[in-house]
Amino acid sequence: MRAVRQRLTYANVVATLALFLALSGGVVWAASKIGTKNLKANAVTAGKIKRNAVTNAKIRGNAVTTAKIKTGAVNLTKLAAGTNLLATASGGPVPANGTTPVAVPLGGTTTFTPAPGTAAFLSVEAKGSNLGRVGEKDCEPRIVPFVNGSEWDVAEGTLKLRAFVPTAEQPTGLVPVTGETGPIGLTSPGVAQTVSVKVLGSPECTPGSTVSVAIAVTQAK
């Protein structure tokens, strides 16, 4: 210890303090000078971002585009009920060549209650699979929506799928998808509306042909 005290001169103390300040000051200076160009590619991973650190305010306008949204991440079921989407359901396949009406078992929400002073619209879409003709007549299965048990048809006869003799204008000879949209519940505000669907098969369709149906009830903005 005596030897240490002999070497502990004013000059040594000042030199040590200067070295310490230089080193610590350099770290502070370096931290203030690290920008995006100094970060190695992929250095900042999801695990290094604090939970809830990235908020709406920190996302640049139009930065999240369609290409950056994972397929299936945003769908109708994830929209808040009562804003745009009131009900959505789908079902099938059911036979397209039956001779009696077949109810399509719809999975999802099929009932909603319209609010006074707002407009709601029912959209129905049907898709045929393996549609083909048997004989000379066209294959034309018809899709019939019902609201509270009564037939709903905003444009009579439009909800049909077809397999027909090809023409120059329609060389495929197929209308495999059909759809329609119209108002629903405007005259019955506050009364629950339940949507169901039946398929009127066509014996002229090939065996094994089927129909699938999807419905959605949306509220006008």
Assess the beta-strand content as a share of residues.
Answer: 25-35%
How are the strands of the largest sheet arranged? 3-1-12-5-10
- Helix-strand pattern: HHEEEEEEEEEEEE
Helix count equals 2
Global Rg? 34 Å
- Provide the residue-averaged pLDDT: 79
**Which term fits the overall shape?**
elongated
Features:
single chain, 221 residues, alpha+beta, Jelly Rolls, 29% strand, elongated
TL;DR?
This protein is an alpha+beta fold and about 220 residues long.
Write up what this structure looks like.
The chain has 2 domains: 2-41; 75-219, Jelly Rolls (Sandwich). The strands form 3 sheets. It has a 5-stranded antiparallel beta sheet, with no helix packed on it. Strands 2, 4, 6, 7 and 11 form a 5-stranded antiparallel beta sheet that branches. It has a two-stranded antiparallel ribbon with strand order 8-9. 14% of the residues lie in helices and 29% in strands. By secondary structure, it is an alpha+beta fold. The radius of gyration is 34 Å and the shape is elongated. The chain has 2 helices and 12 strands.
Annotate the secondary structure layout.
Blueprint: H1 2-7, H2 10-33, E1 85-95, E2 102-103, E3 106-108, E4 111-112, E5 120-129, E6 142-147, E7 150-151, E8 162-163, E9 174-175, E10 177-183, E11 193-200, E12 210-219
Antiparallel strand pairs: 1-3, 1-12, 2-11, 4-11, 5-10, 5-12, 6-7, 6-11, 8-9
